[in-house]
Amino acid sequence: MRPSSAARRAVRLLVWLGLLLGALPAFAQGTDDLLPVTEAYKLSADTSTPGVLKLHWTIAPDYYLYRGRMKFKGGDGVTLGAAQLPDGEKHHDEYLGDVETYHHGIDASIPYTVGAGSTRLKLSVQYQGCHEVDPKICYPPHTEQLDLPLPAGVGVTPTVAAGKSLGAALGQLGGNRHEATTGMDSAPLPAEQAFRFEALAQNPHQLLLRWTMPKGYYLYRDQTTLKLKDAAGLRLKPAWPAGTAHHDEHYGDVTVYFDQVELPVAVEGGPGDRKPLALEASFQGCQDGGLCYPLMTRALTIDLGSAVATSGIATQAAPEMPPANAGPGPLQSSLIGALLLALGGGLVLNLMPCVLPVLSIKAVSVLESGENRATARRHALFYTAGVLCSFAALGLGILVLRAAGHALGWGSQLQQPLLVGALACVMLAVGLSMSGVVQFGASLGNTGAGLASRSGPTGDFFTGVLAVVVASPCTAPFMGSALAYAFAAPMLAALLVFLALGIGLALPFLAVGFVPALARLLPRPGRWMETLKQVLAFPMYLTAAWLVWVLANQRGADAVGLVLVAMVLLAMTLWWFERSRSRGAISKALVAVLAILTLVPVYLLAHVPPLSNVAAVEEGVVAYSPEKLAALRAAGTPVFVDMTADWCVTCKANEHTVLDTQAFRDLLQRSGAVYMKGDWTDVNPSISAFLQQYHSPGVPLYVVFPKNGGPGKQLSTVLTSSLVEQALTEAAR
């Protein structure tokens, strides 16, 4: 049973009483050597930057401050934002457990707003620290009251006087903030036209906020706050995309957004059945080279229950916005270029390890056709039909979900344990068939693994289907740009890209079927082919083992146990199916019973909960979170972000050749960069939002963030050591 909040407060009080009582002997022995608290921790404040309070503590030698014991409270008319504190040194405290501490000095900044006409900034600052050598004591929490002068103009809210334009009124706020003339030739637009705001409900747990500005206007990232009204238990977790580094005369080095910015916001906590939300967004922006607008607030009502993209109703009228995925990035490519990249990517897919096991089925069937050109053409055409139909169905599914406001990435179907388990069983059944354990005949109809193993058009068609299913987790070179285009392009263009991928995948078999010179290069049929077929069964077993490993990382040992039971029952079903061929109806009925029993553990896979504990990341790697990434960037640390998944074969190849090498670890140390990894093996809204920010259709995604706070640089999906070294060297400058 979890202790109540009152009990937890009592425990904390007892801990601190014990801390203070334990410190009394130290006071008695040598308190004369201790500094007064205000000398041990000298606090200074700076209000020269409007809207931001900068604090600095100078910490004496042998003293430290607790990061988690700092509290800030605004006085009358003062509203404080979230304090921006650097990461501290990890430390295990005897009384407080794992904490972060500061030595020598610390800089903090706190955004604030004050009422109109205010000339003073009043607030209280509480902190606590300890002396870490004899006498080892901790000071009680200390509070300082600050009363600071504000710079001229802060707190003055401009008003539009009669007979004056908006530009003249806002000029009081902007002053001569910029000496450049960019954007000054035209009068400033009204706020609702300069900063158009919209909110979309992508699903019950995800919002997409969008600001659209005309040319020459920009939005501040750190002057934006989001609130929910009457939504107890719900929290908003924004994942800001990379913006543009900008030096502001008042705010210093900041991040701003021009033209349009899309902000994914996760809605966390609370019950699954959610009523419409009342969202309040406050933000500030400027006309480039001109003036700044006062803080703007927009209120919207968003219905999350339908899980459909719906436009909120703003207090200020907002014209209809373009679709969420119509960002400029992916569409900079032409349709012809995307089709050529897709064709090349599909062709290279034939060489990927995840596709080779399925192609072994067709390799045997083509060899069996010998020099019979009609049979070879039939194999090629029906296999191609299966590939194209599957890619078309996959593309249509993605487009429908995209139109409904859902995000679906390339290969993300393997995030579903039920599909992973079913595919593992299919691969086992196909392998058993190729090993000669079972021969599928017409009596099986068009079901199960027999579809891909049957001879004739049906087998050719469904081998193409199976090839697409196992190929989708792979990302070949050239596919990244083509898929990014398809995920953002209009429906017809997107479907053409998916079909081009299918043509590329089927092209080798089309060439063998329709080019006699290539067909004549194939060896003649013989008894050796039966041995080849049995040898090619083993890649099928390895693929099944790989899928079970993926399932273990998603749902743990319980899921592995279920799929292994399903495999044993499937093997029993196929064994008894062979024995029942010459037997009566009772034996055939037993086959149906065993087949139904096989489906039971596969069905139960869908109900195994995700792993409760986050898997530990390897040494030297930081688990991805938007907050951690923002903190590292704010501290001026270059970051290498790696979005990966266990079912992504390209990801594993990049790790083996580049990222898991000593050369890469040495490069991180030289550049001072942090290696941050996001695991998309299972569903993860934060990682999905990050992929959307960079218009990435799936994993792998590699982004390098420079230490100067500039925009991240997206790397190729296929890494080389020289490419990574160049990116990190530039980021560290």
Describe this structure in words.
The protein has four domains: 12-149, Immunoglobulin-like (Sandwich); 179-324, Sandwich (Immunoglobulin-like); 331-605, no CATH class; 621-731, Glutaredoxin (3-Layer(aba) Sandwich). The chain is 41% helix and 21% strand. It contains 22 helices and 27 strands. The chain has a five-stranded mixed sheet, sandwiched between helices. It has a four-stranded antiparallel sheet with strand order 1-2-8-5. It has 733 residues and is of the alpha+beta class.
Give descriptors for this structure.
Immunoglobulin-like; 22 helices; five-stranded mixed β-sheet; 4 domains; 27 strands; single chain; 733 residues; four-stranded antiparallel β-sheet; alpha+beta
In percent, how much strand structure appears in the residues?
A: 15-25%
Count the DSSP helices.
22
Indicate the mean pLDDT: 75
- Placed side by side, the strands forming the largest sheet appear as 23-25-24-26-27
Describe the largest sheet.
5 strands, mixed
Count of DSSP strands? 27
- Regarding quaternary structure, what we see is single chain
Portion of residues within helices? 40-55%
Category by helix and strand content: alpha+beta
**What's the number of structural domains?**
4
Nearest-angstrom radius of gyration? 32 Å
Terminal CA distance reads 53 Å
Which residue ranges are poorly predicted, with pLDDT under 50 across at least 5 consecutive positions? 17-31, 155-185, 306-332, 441-454
Q: What spatial form do the alpha-carbon principal axes imply?
A: elongated
